[in-house]
């Protein structure tokens, strides 16, 4: 059965959305094309009509994951526009976010794997990380861009590291301690 161009475009977006979530949950190599396509309600045969390769899908899914994460930051700040950094800290450095394997931060979920991927996947992460830094930079530091940029990098590194460490330990108390310590350090960095 022939699929319309509109349906093909919708199918492509569905595959990218599903891959964005499943890659975060299982890793780039933790799921095969058959299961990715099944997750999108399609057959494996449709894959190569939509994408050049799994690497092509990984790059597009990474871009979508980073866009999704940035939208979450924007939604958090819209809910608390007077204290945008506090809004982001509240959701990002939380036990709820720690548990969000499929919808959580892609840098936490896939950062070490992305470092071993091709240039297109890295470019997707780089664009998203730059957006994170742009947002953080607008909330911290002085008018001097270098200082705000350096603070933003330190804050992002602290936040990502804390969520990552909280996910690799079994002890919920230790996980919470990592998140609490990062929260304290980020707030301290802003006032310094």
From TrEMBL:
Tell me the ranges covered by the HTH tetR-type domain, including all copies. 9-69
Record-annotated DNA-binding residue ranges: 32-51
Cytoplasm is among the record's keywords = no
InterPro entries given for it?
A: Homeodomain-like_sf, HTH_TetR, Tet_transcr_reg_TetR-rel_C_sf
The name this protein carries in UniProt is: TetR/AcrR family transcriptional regulator
**UniProt keyword annotations, A-Z:** DNA-binding, Transcription, Transcription regulation
What Gene3D superfamilies has UniProt attached to this entry? Homeodomain-like (1.10.10.60), Tetracycline Repressor, domain 2 (1.10.357.10)
């Amino acid at each position: 059965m022939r699929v319309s161009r509109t349906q093909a475009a919708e199918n492509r977006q569905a595959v990218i959305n599903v891959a964005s979530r499943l890659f975060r949950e299982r890793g780039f190599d933790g799921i095969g094309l058959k299961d990715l396509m099944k997750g999108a309600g399609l057959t494996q045969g449709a894959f190569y009509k939509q994408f050049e390769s799994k690497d092509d899908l990984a790059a597009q899914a990474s871009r979508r994951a980073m866009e999704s994460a940035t939208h979450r930051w924007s939604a958090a700040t819209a809910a608390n526009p007077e204290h945008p950094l506090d809004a982001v800290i509240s959701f990002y450095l939380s036990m709820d976010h720690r548990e969000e394997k499929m919808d959580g931060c892609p840098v936490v979920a896939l950062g070490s794997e992305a470092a071993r991927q091709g240039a297109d996947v890295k470019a997707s992460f780089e664009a998203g990380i730059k957006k994170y830094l742009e947002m953080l930079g607008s909330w911290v530091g002085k008018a001097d861009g270098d200082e705000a940029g350096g603070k933003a990098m330190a804050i992002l590194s602290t936040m990502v590291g804390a969520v990552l460490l909280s996910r690799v330990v079994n002890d919920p108390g230790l996980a919470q301690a990592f998140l609490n310590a990062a929260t304290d350090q980020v707030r301290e960095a802003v006032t310094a």
